[in-house]
Amino acid sequence: MKINILLLQGVFYTHLPSSEVYKNKSIAAKVRFNNILGGFNMNESAKKAIEFLAGLGVIIPEEKHEKFAQDFFKQFKHAGEMDAKIETANAEITRINGLLETANAEIQSFKEVDVDGIQAKIAQYESDIAAKDAAHAKELENLTFESWKNEQLSSTGAKNTKAYGALFDWDALKYSNNRDADFKAAHETTKSENAYMFPDENPHKKLDLPPPGDFGKPITKEALQKMTYTEKYEFKSNNPDLYSAIMKG
Fold first, then answer.
1. Taking the model in full, what pTM does it have?
2. What string of pLDDT tens digits covers the 249 residues of the chain?
3. Whole-angstrom Cα distance, residue 235 to residue 249?
4. Where are the domains of the chain?
5. If you ran DSSP here, which 8-state letter would residue 249 be given?
6. Cβ-based burial of 167 (10 A; exposed 0-12, middle 13-18, buried ≥19)
7. How far apart are CA 130 and CA 124, in angstroms?
8. Are 3 and 58 in contact (CB under 8 A)?
């Protein structure tokens, strides 16, 4: 006679103490069932199972005992593994249901968000960032240009670089595609037209005094004041003491 081991387990369950755990055939019930069979010792458990069946009138021939024990524990083990998998699956389902509840709650909260307001704030933020970036780039461009400008003026050798620099069209030079070459050309022209703004290449050369007055008198303060700005500048540069004496007279 072929014995259904799961049916045998069911029979054992009916003889377990009255408990919801055992009625539900949980893993705990199977552990209890296993303990009834003598713990996890295969030979002892199989022996008790055979004795239990004999008490119910089901006799298993002795030569079938070993095969019975192998089949019994194979199916019992399989049933336990299935229960473990089912409990694992149930735990996963519970976890997923929890995630779904959380997601649904978040979705519900999103419905109450002012999306248009958020988008407007994001647009304003991006606009502000772009404006700040542009202002920073402009400031950096100006600082770079001022550094280049001062460097170029220092290289001219002018007596007063600030005054000399006022003669240039810096806006045109700032946006020139060939700034260095354009400054050099502008400098050569400006210097030739304003030589008095540069040291005399022959510092020992003295400016010839204007011819004396009608009566052979030396230059006077009035005569000096009639000079052009360039003549007066050169006279003062080359004759500082005489210039001071005349102006004080």
1. 0.36
2. 445 554 555 544 444 444 433 344 444 445 444 554 444 455 676 777 788 888 888 888 888 878 877 777 666 666 667 777 888 888 999 999 999 998 888 888 877 777 788 888 888 888 888 888 898 888 998 999 999 999 999 999 998 999 999 999 999 999 989 999 999 999 999 998 888 889 876 655 554 555 444 444 567 778 877 788 778 878 888 888 888 888 776
3. 16
4. 5-111, 136-197, 200-249
5. -
6. middle
7. 10
8. yes
